[in-house]
Amino acid sequence: MATLNSNIPSGPLAEKWEHHKFYTKLINPANKRKYKIIVVGAGLAGASASATLAELGYEVHNFVFHDSPRRAHSVAAQGGINAAKNYQNDGDSVHRLFYDTIKGGDFRAREANVHRLAEVSVNIIDQCAAQGVPFAREYGGLLDNRSFGGAQVSRTFYARGQTGQQLLLGAYSALNRNIANGGVKSYTHAEMLDLVVVDGHAKGIIVRNLQTGEITRHNGDAVVLATGGYGNVYNLSTYARGANVTASWRAYKRGACFGNPCYTQIHPTCIPVSGDYQSKLTLMSESLRNDGRVWVPKRKEDCKKAPQDIAEGDRDYYLERMYSAFGNLAPRDIASRAAKTVCDEGRGVGETGLGVYLDFSAAIQRLGEGKVRERYGNLFAMYQEITNENAYQTPMRIYPAVHYTMGGLWVDYNLMSNVPGLFVLGEANFSDHGANRLGASALMQGLSDGYFVLPATISGYLAGQNPGKRPTTDNGSFKEAEENVQTMTKRLLGNKGKRTPDSFHKELGKLMWEHCGMARNEASLQKGIKAIGALREAYWKEVNVLGESNDWNQSLERAGRIADFIELGELMCRDALMREESCGGHFREEYQYTPDDPETKQGLVNPGDVKRRDDQFAFVAGWEYAGAPDKAPILNKEPLVYEEVKMSTRSYK
Amino acid sequence: MKVTLKVWRQKNRNTPGSFKTYESPELNENMSFLEMLDVVNEALANRGEEPIAFDHDCREGICGTCSLVIDGKPHGPHKGIATCQTYMRSFKDGDEIVVEPFRAKAFPLIKDLVCDRKAFDRIQHAGGFITVRTGAAPDANSIPVPKENADLAMDAAQCIGCGACVAACKNASAMLFVSAKISHLGLMPQGQPERYKRAKAMVDQMDAEGFGACTVTGSCEAVCPKEISLDFIARMNRDYGVALLKGDPKAIKGGGAG
Ligand SMILES: Cc1cc2nc3c(=O)[nH]c(=O)nc-3n(C[C@H](O)[C@H](O)[C@H](O)COP(=O)(O)OP(=O)(O)OC[C@H]3O[C@@H](n4cnc5c(N)ncnc54)[C@H](O)[C@@H]3O)c2cc1C
Ligand code: FES
């Protein structure tokens, strides 16, 4: 069994981070350059970490499978980044951001991590502004803010509809400066395919050059994974097509525990699925819910009518009705589930009946079309490109889609996994969002981890390592790991089955959506586990991967990633099955509030809202690989201890 | 609907390539252009033929990974969008569509429709940053930026680094790209200390990479998915000119920490 020690420092919550930084061992400047750190990934988390570690003097080697660090999936974030600056004087504070995030995560995140995140948030904005990130500004030249779901203050900073690209370009520029001055060596089109563990410590990686197919070994004193989320296990999602779980999954197979894999975020405002050929779902930024009102017809019979022909009194603005305090800005998990509920009642709109309206007519009346265009013009244009509809004239149609994964590799307070020397940052770790992430908090966490947290904590581990004794790449563990990669490549290319890798990905996606999607239950999860296990076996019998290993081969790249997704899908179902409660994005139909529950009667929740079981499930699940894909994984638990906040009923009414 | 594709196939840089013709399976006009290629590729793979290699990732016009010259136009028939945002409803049943990679000396071909755009990264290594260490930043609101400047900087910063500007230019010039980068940072107060040095370093690297000269025909602006304006090229030329006039920055004597 693995040991999951959170290593949360002692002392009052608000002082833990300062104390911890003080007591963490440092490495003197002259010695830092002797340490070599491998960073995989250059999204917000990986780029910011690489640049900052290099500035501190470490020798950093950065790897990305993309052709350029600038293309990491972080680039696609639209809406914004939170920070407790309280520039709007609307009552925000570090404590409020902390509390909103803990509550938003349905009391399933680690208190100490979240408090640190809120503390550091203010430094992030300073750092990014100094790098020249062109944040939106008011006429006086100061920074502008907007509001996002799950908060009653305006603390979200943004750069038109492309906050992610602008923050990433900032981190990328810092990375570039350190590449230019020799602090970072950058490897692009370089995919990590295995983690090398020597004497129980992470000491290297095996990498495939996607252009030439060459497999190489890389050693280091520590390995940092900042490789993003795994939502593409559902095939259809708002993620970039290339986003995958391979780095995390291979680390899992080398002993790193996977934390809360079933916690997935389904985002309420995405363009509905239109056909079987579809390759991705497009997010319509949550910021739209600032001015758009969500509704469906009150009566089923009206669903096929044009929205203009449905009288005001015949519309059900269900979020405003059900969650009056937050209304259209209810958190994502709640808004998504409500959309599913009204569609399941037969009141969904559009051809498939899986859609709800997001209506701007009131905003256009109030503000004028010009102002709405100024705020959301690019999103309206995107909507029109995809659907051929003009949302200034007719309401948008939206439906929930897979968007983010709160689960990820388990890490302690130092962001180190249970494999010493393996650190995990950004969306790839499980740490800060509990069972549901609030909008504009992923960018914040990625940059917090990379700019501020890891650079302060990694020295605590490195101080115990002797860089003079770093295992070389002729070490047996490197050889074994390389052979492992070669064997898998050969097996995929040599298989000569009849089905394409993508056809399996589609099938897996459907299974996941059906059995481990927005609503889960015991019987269906059990079916899912069986079906995915069978799919895994079929994969290795029937998959056909064309092309060669020593060449640019996108089929081969995808085939390896899909093999990992299939195994992950099974683990997600197992986690969801084990967690006999509902919390945040994890909704088990067996555990929901009924009209008779006291909380419902008191008006805190609606019937059908998620019901936690703190007495039994206030823990992080850290799943440990049992040595073979068909062996049941081992469950380890990290109890969640709340010192400051009381776990309470999560109410947005 | 169905279309006929004339696609550039090339195994690698060292093997000559040629056009191959493929009939698409039945398509839906709501498919994106890349989804159409997915469907064609699945059909190819099911016949045992190697799928067409093409670059893509976000499929929503922001990562700059997709490329393709479609019927002679980088990013296809429409203005202000990338290939991944092009939908089959822009074509007619029975159309023949010619699909080629971005071609430029500085973008060597990798395979079929995929080319190597790392030259863009190297230009940014040369100077595409503001020197600020992590943790050394003042409060963000201590540096007000006039909204007009911030907006203009943002207009430049929207560049997604796809390289369509280079592919569209008869000289394969990268001026629109480089000028967008230089203008974004040069328009912000934070970017002033290194403004001219940056312009010079990036332009020199651009030349070293083998990109051609600009003759202001505007074909780059016409295909840019973010509609970056040619005006930024004028800005860049001014900054580069000033950099040449100033010469290498002189070190200030004395005053070092003891
Ligand atoms: C459409 C969309 C909009 C969003 N909008 C917002 C928003 O407005 N606000 C917000 O806070 N969050 C938003 N998010 C979430 C947020 O963007 C992500 O959670 C975050 O950017 C992830 O950053 P990251 O650095 O952890 O990983 P990523 O940006 O995904 O980077 C992963 C990196 O790892 C590399 N990599 C992965 N695997 C390997 C491997 N095996 N070998 C080598 N390299 C590898 C990749 O090349 C890449 O560089 C949005 C997400 C989506 C999908
Ligand atoms: S795939 Fe990202 S811009 Fe087209």
Structural category of chain B is alpha+beta
Q: What is the tally of helical segments of chain B?
A: 8
The CATH architecture of one domain in chain A would be: Up-down Bundle
Globally, the shape of chain B reads: elongated
Indicate the CATH topology of one domain in chain A: Methane Monooxygenase Hydroxylase, Chain G, domain 1
By CATH, the superfamily of one domain in chain A comes out as Fumarate reductase/succinate dehydrogenase flavoprotein-like, C-terminal domain
DSSP, total strands of chain A? 19
Can you give a write-up of this model?
Chain A has 653 residues and is an alpha+beta fold. Among the domains of chain A are: 267-402, Succinate dehydrogenase/fumarate reductase flavoprotein, catalytic domain (Flavocytochrome C3, Chain A, domain 1, Alpha-Beta Complex); 477-617, Fumarate reductase/succinate dehydrogenase flavoprotein-like, C-terminal domain (Methane Monooxygenase Hydroxylase, Chain G, domain 1). Chain A is 37% helix and 14% strand. Chain A has 18 helices and 19 strands. Chain A has helices at residues 16-23, 29-32, 44-56, 94-104, 111-130, 163-180, 246-253, 318-322, 332-347, 361-367, 369-387, 442-462, 476-494, 501-516, 522-542, 554-578, 598-601, 614-617; strands at 36-40, 59-63, 81-82, 156-157, 184-187, 190-198, 201-209, 215-219, 222-225, 258-259, 264-270, 293-297, 315-316, 356-359, 396-405, 408-409, 422-424, 619-624, 634-639. Chain A has a five-stranded parallel sheet with strand order 5-2-1-9-17. In chain A, strand 1 (36-40), helix 3 and strand 2 form a beta-alpha-beta unit. In chain A, helix 3 (44-56) runs parallel beside helix 6 (163-180) and helix 4 packs across helix 5 (111-130). In chain A, 60% of the residues are buried. The mean pLDDT of chain A is 96. By secondary structure, chain B is of the alpha+beta class. Chain B folds into two domains: 4-111, Ubiquitin-like (UB roll); 117-251, Alpha-helical ferredoxin (Fumarate Reductase Iron-sulfur Protein, Chain B, domain 2, Orthogonal Bundle). Chain B is 33% helix and 10% strand. Chain B has eight helices and seven strands, in the order E-E-H-E-E-E-E-E-H-H-H-H-H-H-H. Chain B has helices spanning 33-46, 118-125, 147-157, 164-168, 175-186, 195-208, 219-223, 231-246, and strands at residues 4-9, 18-23, 69-70, 73-74, 96-100, 109-111, 114-115. In chain B, the strands form two sheets. Chain B has a five-stranded mixed sheet. Chain B has a two-stranded antiparallel sheet with strand order 6-7. Chain B is elongated. The mean pLDDT of chain B is 95. Chains A and B meet through helix 3, helix 5, helix 6, helix 11 and helix 12 of A and helix 1, helix 2 and helix 3 of B. The complex binds flavin-adenine dinucleotide and FE2/S2 (inorganic) cluster (FES).
